[in-house]
Amino acid sequence: MNESIGTIQTAALAQIAAAACERALEDARVAVLGKKGTLTLAGAAIKDVPPAEKAAFGQSLNAARTAITAALTEKQLALREAADRAALAGIDSTLPARALPVGSLHPLTLIRDQAIGILRRMGFALADGPEIEDEFHCFDALNTPADHPARNEKDTFYFESGKLLRTHTSSVQIRTMETQPPPVRIIAPGSAYRRDEIDATHLSAFNQLEGLAVGPDISLPDLKGTLEYFLRELFGTKTEVRFRPHFFPFTEPSFEIDVKLTVKGQAPRWIEVAGCGMVDPAVFDAVNRSRKDNAYDPDKVTGFAFGMGLDRLAMIRWGIKDIRLLIENDTRFLRQFA
Q1: Is 192 helix (H, G, I), strand (E, B) or coil?
Q2: 211 by DSSP, 3-state: which?
Q3: Less CB within 10 Å around the terminal CB: N or C of the chain?
Q4: What are the tens digits of pLDDT across the range 171-192?
Q5: Neighbours of 288 (CB within 10 A)
Q6: Radius of gyration (Cα) for the chain, nearest Å?
Q7: Strand 184-193 and strand 125-126: pairing?
């Protein structure tokens, strides 16, 4: 029996040594160690070996299996090294490597992250809400009358259910106040949707960043100081900022904010960047009715709110003249931000 195992081992090692590829090596392995391999069948015959010879037979069998397995591993490594050398044949390893393309964040992501970072340092927390909204959170709670143009189907995307795609992220302010008593200090970045004709300055889907601060003794100077600091951190410490009286249903008084843009070779000009104001007491009343308490008593708390388009901030920041460039995914344009 031991002599037959030696014969099997010798034949197997010769077949392994002669294997010219990994396929031939696998065939050699199966022929010896497979379910019907020669060494496997020889091992199955141990039941017929006399008891006095079983120990020696087992040792010979294990020694043969170990030698064959080691030879298979060594041959496999040798074949793979040979294949690697063949693949590199003719390649000049002294040539410089090809430059890999460098990716970058989208300009909207860059401006959003920077804006959030500035406001987070000022104590604002991030808040989020659904993009499919109802009229209460998008309009009614924000003191928007039923005949307001924004509520017209020509301006807003409505579903058959009566719900709509939010026209601003102000709805997040209402949802936050419904679930959290004052003080509140949040920002709500996200997408908004309006039925605008797409052109160089308008998109039907755009990005907003809105903020809300509510608590005792919050005043108009708090609003003015917050936004002046924010805009100067975003556009530069020498940025000129002005507030113009305006009207929004949900704030009173209300203002539009402009920054003076200075572009080399052009005369400085004022550009609108945001809207803001002190929260209208009617908004607090609507929130109280929804909460079924008086947590936002207009006689005890005040607040300010602001909103701005991130797309517009990006256009101002980098001198982008056509807003459509932000959604076309043209790598020639986006490569500038790498």
Answers
A1: strand
A2: strand
A3: C
A4: 999 999 999 999 999 999 999 9
A5: 17
A6: 37
A7: parallel
